[in-house]
Write a structure and sequence with these properties.
This protein is of the alpha/beta class. The chain is built from 17 helices and 14 strands. It has two domains: 222 residues, Rossmann fold; 218 residues, Rossmann fold. The radius of gyration is 24 Å and the shape is elongated. The chain binds uridine-5'-diphosphate-glucose (UPG).
């Protein structure tokens, strides 16, 4: 099939590359011409394991191409994915201006051939209808005739449109997005018509109707538009709540002398609970959970419902970062004038994404308290981090960050942090305190090196 992907961010690029890999002809479009040029040269805008190789192979096979021309994509593709960003506005509601602009422009370029327009960006419930309206509005707008008309806009009669809107939420985790795309737990399609559903079944046939007998079909859930949109929010809100729940349990564990790791392990063995997303720590960040939980609260409010559980999920997450500062204060007493080393800036390992990263929030709070903060991350660069926290010092060596530091705080569980020689860590640190904000170090080993170990809920 011929597929257009509008927006080459995380979701768009990964989706486009994976669909090309299974044999579709994919056109990835972005209005950032410089980004398109870099993609053509094989330079990825994000760090994601396996993506660069995949894109390169797809480009070599001729199945993946990049363009900045929306007209080209709309003309060639029978399925059009909208994968542009929907960041949070200050009040927590999502900023849909990019979706609005793309939907209208798609409408302006549509002709009378049938198209399926797929919302893959996480958009509030009800957006499917709204996108339909925008596409229709776009189609009614004046269209300038092609180049060579001397710049004079020529009014053309709007074509008779044949299109359906589909909601097809993504469930990709940064750091394993390519793997997740090839191995999804389910594929969700919210479709307006049987015709659109059939197109999507064919598009995803590699997953839902595999030809190889040894591959198990991925469950396909077909719903109405609103339910598909809700599934995405409900999944992220549930996962975020699960983490806030275990963080709350951790906070009680600390007070009663229990170990949250053992508690999580045991409750996770109950299949009704499940053992994933039960790691207590400094809280969740990233581009999805904070934005999506806030957006769901905002949708509830819009429709006259107060989301008290989800507000608590957000509140627990917010205070969880402050607990790192409290722990430092408890150990060091005065924080003003102290040097604190932070290991890990990305919101989680195997990504360079620092959006809503707990590490940067903790660094900001420490700087505001008069500390000097020296951080290390295996991938995030000083330039990247300093856009958000200008006074943060970032060193390319994890061990160098420890020199003259009164305490070490581990904020991202990069595997290499658990492998350092703790005797060396102990020798370099001026102070004795190690706050393990991700429970990723071995407590006994840290203590064995003469350091004070402070974990979360243990
Ligand atoms: N986290 C914990 N404890 C856990 C698991 C995760 O604190 O037990 C934190 C993690 O450190 C990170 C955040 O939770 O800060 C989110 O982690 P993760 O879900 O792995 O990352 P994302 O890439 O943000 O993926 C989420 C959903 C994915 C969805 C995506 C965008 O997992 O299904 O597609 O958001 O909506």
């Amino acid at each position: 099939m011929k597929v257009g992907v509008i927006g080459t961010g995380y979701v768009g690029l990964v989706t486009g590359a994976c669909l090309a890999r299974v044999g579709h002809q994919v056109f990835c479009m972005d209005n950032d011409t410089a980004k398109v040029e870099r993609l053509k040269q094989g330079i990825m805008p994000i760090y994601e394991p396996g993506l660069e190789e995949l894109v390169q192979q797809d480009v070599d096979s001729g199945l993946l191409s990049f363009t900045d021309s929306l007209a080209t994509v709309v003309q060639h593709a029978e399925v059009l994915f909208i994968t542009v960003g929907t960041p949070s506005r200050p009040d927590g509601s999502p900023d849909l201006s990019a979706v609005r602009a793309v939907a209208r422009s798609v409408g302006q370029h549509l002709d009378s051939r049938y198209r399926v327009i797929v919302n893959k960006s996480t958009v509030p419930v009800g957006s499917g209808n709204w996108v339909r309206m925008l596409v229709e509005d776009g189609a009614r707008s004046p269209v300038a005739a092609a180049a060579g008309d001397g710049g004079v806009a020529v009014l053309q009669a709007p074509p008779e449109l044949h299109f359906d809107i589909v909601s097809n939420p993504e469930f990709l985790r940064e750091g394993s997005a390519v793997w997740d795309t090839f191995n999804p737990d389910r594929i969700v399609i919210g479709a307006e018509s049987e015709r659109a559903e059939q197109v999507m079944r064919e598009l995803y046939s590699y997953w839902v109707a595999p030809e190889e007998p040894d591959r198990t079909p991925v469950p396909l859930v077909v719903t109405d538009l609103a339910s598909a949109e809700m599934i995405k929010y409900a999944a992220n809100a549930f996962l975020a709540t699960k983490i806030s729940f275990i963080n709350e349990i951790a906070n009680i564990c600390e007070r009663v002398g229990a170990d949250v790791s053992r508690v999580a392990q045991a409750i996770g063995l109950d299949k009704r609970i499940g053992n994933q997303f039960l790691n207590a720590g400094a809280g969740w960040g990233g581009s999805c959970f904070p934005k999506d939980v806030s957006a769901l609260v905002s949708t509830g409010q819009e429709y006259g419902y107060e989301c008290s559980l989800l507000r608590a999920t957000l509140a627990v997450n917010d205070t969880q970062r402050k607990r790192i500062i409290e722990k430092l204060q408890r150990e060091l007493r005065i924080l003003k004038g102290r040097t604190i080393a932070i290991w890990g800036l990305a919101f989680k390992p195997h990504t360079d994404d620092i959006r809503s990263a707990p590490a940067l929030e903790v660094a900001t709070q420490l700087l505001n308290l008069g500390c000097r903060v020296v951080a290390h991350d295996p991938i995030v660069t000083a330039a990247q981090a300093q856009v958000q926290v200008p006074d943060l010092q970032v060193t390319p060596s994890a061990l160098a960050a420890l020199e003259q530091a009164d305490a070490l705080v581990v904020m991202t569980e990069w595997p290499e942090y658990a492998q350092f020689d703790l005797a060396e860590v102990s020798r370099l640190l001026r102070g004795r305190v190690v706050v393990d904000g991700r429970n990723c170090l071995k407590r006994e080993a840290v203590q064995g090196a003469g350091l004070v170990y402070v974990g979360i809920g243990r």
